[in-house]
Design goal:
heterodimer; A: alpha+beta; five-stranded antiparallel sheet; 21 helices; B: mainly alpha; two-stranded antiparallel sheet
C-alpha cells in the first residue's frame, strides 16, 4: 500500500507534533510529581504521625432544616433537639467487650448491639444511631463511662415538630426517614440513609430549600476514639442550615376553617388572595397529626390509615374532585352572554320543572320561580332558567367556555398531586359511552353543574378569583417568601397570571354584582354568609351525589368593592350549600378579616397574635397588627421579582 | 504474516518491552502487598494476575505479529464487534450496584469497554489516514465524532463515566496528530460548549454572537460555517428541553458530576485515607509489605483503583517517581516511534494507544492524589484486572510490531 502521508517532506512535521505531545505528557507528569512532593516530602512527617498512632474519624454535621411559618410569623414547623447515642466503627477495639458493657449499661440485648456494630462497619462514616431520643439517665450513664466506651458518643440531633398538630397538615406535609427507593435517586445529592426528607406538601415541594447542606468534620482521634484535634487536610465544611419558608397561610383563618370543618365527616376549604394568588387557607379534613408520622409508623398503622374509609391522607382541597353544583351556573350564565344566546334581561318562566324530550327536569324549588331574568336566575339559583340556557348553548359550546375558564386543567399550585378534574366535552362522551350513544340532554345537567363535570375546591376558588379580578387568575401558591435561617430575604414568589377568564368586563362585573346579591339581597340563597359591616359576594351550591347525601358548596369573596379574600367551601354529604356551607365561609371570612366575635360587629378589632413563638424562631417580619398583616401583598418586597422557582442552592 | 528479517530485529524496541514487563511485575508485587493478610498465604488474586500476565505476554506476541495492513483491513470489523459487545453487556452484563460493565464467564470477567477503546483507535486511524479525508473541513470531522460518540454513549449507559471520558481524550491527540488545526479542535467543541452554557441564556447569547462573528470572519467553506453554527445553536436550544425530559435521578447524576464537591461527601473518607497512605510513605516508604494504612484503613479498592496509594506508602516518593518515570518512558518512546514510522495509519494507531495509556495512568494517579474527582478508573498494567492487563499488553505488542516494520509504507 502506498500512502503519501509520511513522505519525507512531512517527516519534520511529524517530529514536531511528536515533540509537542511528549512535552504535554511530561508536563502533566511533573504536576503529579510536584503534588507527590508536597504530600510525601513536605508533609511526610505529619502524615507519618497520623498513620502511626492515630486515625482520622469523619463526623457528619447535620444541617438544621428550615422553619415553616405562616404569613404572620406563626411557627408551623420547627426542629426539636433530641439526644441520641451513637456508635462508631473502630479498628483495634475489643468489640465483644464493648457489646457486653453497652448491653449492661443501657439494658440492651447483646444481639441488638452486635447488629448495630455490623451496620456501622458497612457505612462510609462508620456510625449508626444506637438509641434515638435517649433519656437523660441513659445519656449520663454513657458520659460517666466515656473512657470505657471507645466509639460511643452522645450526639445532638434535630427532630421535626409541628406545633399546631394537624393544622394545615395537608398543605405543610410532613417529613420522615428517606426510603430506600428515594435514596437511590437522591444519593448523588448527598442524601444518606437515616436522613429525613419531605414526603408531602410544602415539606416535599421545597425540600431543596428547606434541607440546607450537611457539614462534615474530620478529627484526629486516639485509640479510644477521643477526638484530639481537627484534621486540617480533609474536606471539612460547616453545615449550612436550610432556608425558612414563609407561607401565605393565615393561621387564625386556617384554625377557624378547620374548626368549622371538624363538625362534618369530610370537607375542604380553600381561601385565596385574588390579588396575588396567595393561598390563605388550605384545609382538608379529616387530617392526621404529622408529628405521629415523623418518627415512622408501623406497617399495620400505615395500612389502617391508607385503607380508612375517611381517607385522611387525601388532600380534598386539591386532590379530590366533585361536581361543582350551582356555583357553576356563573360560568353557564357568562357563556350564554358571551355567545349571545341570551340577554341579561331576557326572561324565562319557571314552573318548577322543564320538559326536554320525554324527560322532565325539576327545579329545586318545586313551586317554581315564576318569571326569571338572569340576575334572578343566579341569585335564587333557578335550575329551569339554566336548563333552558344549557339547551341553547349545547354541550360543545358550554364545555368550550368551561375549559377556557380553567376547569379540567391543573391550577399549578405548589403542592404535588393536584387533580385536573373532568371536562366532559362531546369527545369525552364519545369515548366514555361510544359515538352517538349519549343523549344531548346531558347538557341540562351540565348547565347546573351536575353530571360528569368534576372540579376541585381549589379550581372553584380560582374561578371566583378570575371573576373578582375581571379576568386574570393568579397561579395559586402556598409559599410566600424564602429567607435564610438568619432572616435575610432570599426571594419572594412572583405573582404570575396563570390564565384569564374568557369573558368581557361587563359580563364579569355583572356576575360579581349577582354574587353580591346572592348574599346581600333579601331573597338571596347565601344570606348566612353575611358579615356585618362588610359587603360579601357568594354563590351557594348543592351538588347531587349518587353515593349519599348531597355535597354542600359555597364560594364567596369579600369585601365586595375590593376583594381581599376568596373562599371556596365544600362539605362532603353536608346537604344544602346555603344552610351548611355559607355559615362556614362566614367563619373563615371573619377570622381572616379579624372579627373577634359577632358582638364587635362594627369595630374592626385588630387581631392580636396569641400564640407564643417557640425559642429559636425567626421572626418573619415585624408583623403589623390586623389589617396591615394581610395587605402586605400590596407592597412588593425588595426581591419581589425573583421567582422562587429559579432559586437553587448557592 | 511476515518472516522477521534483520532490519526488523534491529528496529525492535526492547526498551518498551522490558519496561512494560517491569511495570507488570511491580503490579503483581503491589497486589500481593495490598491483599497480604500477614499470614504468609498468597492471595488467589495474585495467582490470577500472574496467569493473566502470562496470557498478556501471549497477546503481546500476537500484537507484534499482526501486520498494519491486516489491522487496517480488520478495523471496521473490530469496531462492529466492539459495538455489539457493548450493546450486549447492557443486557446481560454484571457489575457493582446495578451497573452493567462486565461479562462473567465462571471465574473470568471481560470488560468490553477495554476492547472498544482499541477498536475505536484503529477505526479512527483508518479514517484519518485515508486520502479521501480532508482534515481542513469540519464536515469531514463529523464522522470521527460519531465513531467516538456511539461507543461513548453505550458506555455511559452502563453507566461508566470514567471510561467514557477516555474515549473523548483519545480523540483529541489523534486528530492533532492527523494534522487538524488546533483552532478546528476548538470549534469541534463548540456544540458541546453551547449545550452546557445554555443554562444561562445571557452567557449563551454572548457565546452564539462570538461564535457567529468568529465564523463570519473566518475563511472556511460556507457549508462548514453553517454546520458549526447551526449544530451549536441547535444543541443550545435543545439543552433545556433535553434536561427537562431527564428523570429526576438522571438530573441528580449530572448535577453530582458537575459538582464533585458533593461526591467528596461520600468518598471524602476514602480520599483522606489515600492521602494519609501516600503522605506517610515519605521519601523512601515504609518498605515492601510494611504499609500500615492499607491494612488498617478503609480503602476498599486498594488492589484496583487505589493501588498507587499502596505503592506510595511502601516505596515513598522515590518509588512513585520511578513508576511514573517508567510510564513516561513507554509513552514518550511510543510518541517518538509514531514520528518514525512511515505508514500514516501505523503512526496514528501508536499515538492512540499511547494516549489511552497515558490518560488512564494520569487520571488514576490524580484521583489518588486528590487532584481529580473519583472516576473508578484503574491504573493500567499495575492494578488488578485481567482483561485490562490482557488488552493493554496486546496493544503494546501492536506498537512493538509497528515499530519493527517502521520502514514499510
Amino acid at each position: 500500500m502506498l500512502l503519501a502521508g509520511n513522505a519525507s517532506d512531512t517527516h519534520g512535521v511529524s517530529r514536531q507534533r511528536s515533540r509537542i505531545l511528549r512535552l504535554a505528557a511530561v508536563a502533566i507528569c511533573l504536576i503529579m510529581i510536584s503534588r507527590l512532593g508536597w504530600l510525601q516530602l513536605l508533609r511526610g512527617q505529619f502524615y507519618r504521625g497520623l498513620s502511626e498512632n492515630n486515625y482520622v474519624q469523619g463526623f457528619l454535621m447535620p444541617a438544621p432544616r428550615g422553619l415553616i411559618l405562616d404569613r404572620n410569623g406563626e411557627i408551623l414547623a420547627y426542629n426539636r433537639t433530641s439526644l441520641s447515642i451513637t456508635l462508631t466503627r473502630m479498628k483495634r477495639r475489643d468489640d465483644a467487650a464493648l457489646t457486653y458493657r453497652l448491653s449492661e449499661l443501657l439494658d440492651l440485648e447483646t444481639g441488638f448491639v452486635t447488629q448495630k456494630l455490623e451496620e456501622a462497619s458497612g457505612r462510609f462514616y462508620g456510625n449508626v444511631v444506637l438509641i434515638k431520643d435517649a433519656n437523660l439517665e441513659q445519656v449520663s450513664r454513657v458520659e460517666e463511662r466515656r473512657s470505657e466506651l471507645p466509639g460511643v458518643k452522645v450526639e445532638v440531633t434535630a427532630v421535626r415538630r409541628y406545633p399546631m398538630g394537624s393544622l394545615a397538615s395537608h398543605a405543610i406535609g410532613y417529613v420522615a426517614e428517606i426510603s430506600d427507593d428515594e435514596l437511590i435517586d437522591r444519593a448523588p445529592l448527598g442524601y444518606r440513609s437515616g436522613n429525613v426528607v419531605g414526603k408531602t406538601g410544602v415539606e416535599n415541594r421545597y425540600e431543596f430549600m428547606l434541607r440546607g447542606r450537611d457539614g462534615a468534620e474530620y478529627w484526629v482521634c486516639d485509640a479510644l476514639g477521643r477526638e484530639l484535634y481537627p484534621f486540617q487536610d480533609g474536606p471539612s465544611r460547616a453545615a449550612r442550615p436550610g432556608s425558612n419558608l414563609i407561607l401565605n397561610l393565615d393561621a387564625p383563618a386556617q384554625i377557624a376553617a378547620e374548626e368549622a370543618l371538624s363538625r362534618y365527616d369530610g370537607g375542604a376549604i380553600v381561601a385565596i388572595d385574588p390579588r396575588s394568588g396567595g393561598v390563605l387557607v388550605l384545609a382538608s379534613l379529616p387530617a392526621l397529626d404529622p408529628n405521629n408520622l415523623v418518627d415512622g409508623i408501623s406497617n399495620e398503622e400505615w395500612a389502617s390509615i391508607s385503607t380508612s374509609p375517611f381517607h385522611p391522607l387525601l388532600n380534598r382541597a386539591i386532590q379530590a374532585t366533585y361536581p361543582p353544583g350551582s356555583p357553576f351556573k356563573l360560568i353557564t350564565a357568562a357563556a350564554g352572554l358571551e355567545s349571545r344566546r341570551i340577554g341579561r334581561d331576557e326572561t324565562v318562566t319557571c314552573i318548577g320543572a322543564f320538559k326536554y324530550g320525554i324527560r322532565t327536569f325539576r327545579c329545586w324549588k318545586h313551586e317554581g320561580h315564576g318569571v326569571v331574568n338572569m340576575m334572578k336566575g343566579i341569585v335564587e339559583s333557578c335550575d329551569v332558567y339554566f336548563y333552558q340556557l344549557g339547551v341553547r348553548l349545547g354541550v360543545a359550546q358550554l364545555m368550550d367556555w368551561t375549559g377556557r375558564s380553567g376547569i379540567g386543567h391543573r391550577t399549578g399550585i405548589d403542592i404535588a398531586g393536584e387533580a385536573a378534574g373532568n371536562l366532559p366535552t362531546p369527545a369525552w362522551y364519545d369515548r366514555a359511552y361510544g359515538k352517538r350513544k349519549w343523549s344531548r340532554g346531558v347538557v341540562l345537567n351540565l348547565a347546573i353543574g351536575q353530571g360528569e363535570l368534576l372540579v376541585t375546591p381549589l379550581q372553584m376558588a380560582c374561578m371566583v378569583c378570575g371573576i373578582v379580578n375581571n379576568g386574570p387568575v393568579y397561579a395559586p401558591h402556598v409559599l410566600k417568601r424564602i429567607e435564610t435561617y438568619s432572616g435575610r430575604m432570599i426571594g419572594t414568589v412572583k405573582e404570575s397570571v396563570s390564565y384569564e377568564l374568557p369573558f368581557s368586563h361587563s359580563t364579569l362585573s355583572f356576575l360579581k354584582q349577582a354574587m353580591v346579591n346572592v348574599v346581600e339581597a333579601p331573597n338571596g340563597t347565601g344570606k348566612l354568609a353575611r358579615v356585618p359591616g362588610i359587603e360579601v359576594g357568594g354563590k351557594t351550591g348543592t351538588a347531587q351525589n349518587p353515593h349519599g347525601e348531597d355535597h354542600a358548596w359555597f364560594v364567596c369573596f369579600a369585601p365586595a368593592d375590593d376583594p381581599e379574600i376568596v373562599v371556596a367551601v365544600l362539605i362532603e354529604h353536608g346537604g344544602g350549600g346555603g344552610a351548611i356551607a355559607a355559615p362556614i365561609a362566614r367563619e373563615v371570612l371573619k377570622a381572616y378579616l379579624r372579627f373577634d366575635s359577632l358582638e364587635q360587629e362594627e369595630t374592626l378589632e385588630p387581631h392580636v397574635l396569641e400564640h407564643e413563638e417557640p425559642g429559636g424562631a425567626t421572626p418573619a417580619e415585624a408583623t403589623p397588627e390586623g389589617e396591615g398583616a394581610r395587605t402586605d401583598a400590596d407592597h412588593p418586597l425588595p426581591n419581589a421579582d425573583s421567582d422562587v422557582r429559579g432559586i437553587r442552592e448557592e | 504474516m511476515q518472516i522477521l528479517n534483520r532490519r526488523q530485529l534491529r528496529d525492535f524496541d526492547y526498551g518498551i518491552l522490558f519496561v512494560t514487563l517491569a511495570i507488570a511485575v511491580i503490579g503483581i508485587l503491589m497486589i500481593h502487598s495490598a491483599t497480604f493478610e500477614g499470614d504468609g498465604i498468597t492471595s488467589t488474586l495474585v495467582k490470577k494476575q500472574v496467569v493473566w500476565a502470562l496470557a498478556g505476554l501471549l497477546a503481546m506476541g500476537i500484537g507484534i505479529l499482526i501486520s498494519q495492513d491486516t489491522l487496517e483491513g480488520l478495523a471496521p470489523f473490530l469496531y462492529g464487534i466492539a459495538l455489539i459487545l457493548l450493546a450486549a453487556v447492557l443486557i446481560i452484563g454484571v457489575g457493582k450496584m446495578g451497573e452493567r460493565r462486565w461479562f462473567e464467564f465462571g471465574p473470568m470477567r471481560l470488560q468490553p469497554s477495554e476492547l472498544a477503546k482499541y477498536a475505536v483507535i484503529v477505526v479512527l486511524a483508518r479514517y484519518l489516514a485515508s486520502r479521501k479525508t480532508n482534515l481542513n473541513r469540519p464536515i469531514h470531522l463529523l464522522l470521527p465524532l460519531i465513531i467516538v460518540l456511539v461507543p461513548t454513549a453505550l458506555i455511559l449507559r452502563e453507566p461508566d463515566l470514567g471510561t467514557s471520558i477516555i474515549f473523548v481524550l483519545i480523540l483529541l491527540p489523534m486528530l492533532f496528530w492527523a494534522g487538524v488545526k488546533p483552532i478546528y479542535l476548538l470549534l469541534l467543541a463548540a456544540p458541546v460548549i453551547s449545550m452546557i452554557i445554555a443554562f444561562n441564556w445571557i452567557a449563551w447569547a454572548i457565546f452564539v454572537a462570538l461564535l457567529g462573528g468568529g465564523l463570519y470572519t473566518s475563511r472556511m467553506f460556507i457549508s462548514d460555517k453553517l454546520l458549526i453554527f447551526l449544530t451549536s445553536v441547535a444543541m443550545g436550544r435543545m439543552s433545556p428541553f433535553l434536561w427537562n425530559h431527564l428523570k429526576d435521578y438522571q438530573q441528580h447524576r449530572v448535577l453530582a458530576f458537575l459538582n464533585p464537591e458533593k461526591y467528596r461527601f461520600s468518598t471524602g473518607y476514602q480520599l483522606i485515607q489515600s492521602k494519609i497512605a501516600i503522605g506517610s510513605g515519605s521519601v523512601f516508604g515504609k518498605g515492601f509489605l510494611n504499609g500500615t494504612q492499607k491494612n488498617y484503613a478503609f480503602l476498599p479498592e486498594q488492589h484496583t483503583d487505589f493501588i498507587f496509594s499502596v505503592l506510595a506508602e511502601e516505596f515513598g516518593f522515590f518509588g512513585c517517581v520511578v513508576v511514573i518515570g517508567l510510564y513516561l518512558y513507554i509513552i514518550t518512546r511510543m510518541l517518538k516511534l509514531a514520528g518514525l514510522v512511515r505508514n500514516r495509519f501505523a503512526g496514528l494507531v501508536i499515538v492512540g494507544i499511547a494516549s489511552a495509556l497515558f490518560v488512564q495512568m494520569a487520571v488514576n494517579i490524580s484521583v489518588t492524589l486528590g487532584l481529580s474527582p473519583v472516576t473508578g478508573m484503574t491504573l493500567p498494567l499495575l492494578s488488578y484486572g485481567g482483561s485490562s492487563l490482557l488488552v493493554t499488553m496486546g496493544s503494546i505488542g501492536i506498537v512493538l510490531g509497528m515499530s519493527m516494520r517502521r520502514m514499510e509504507y
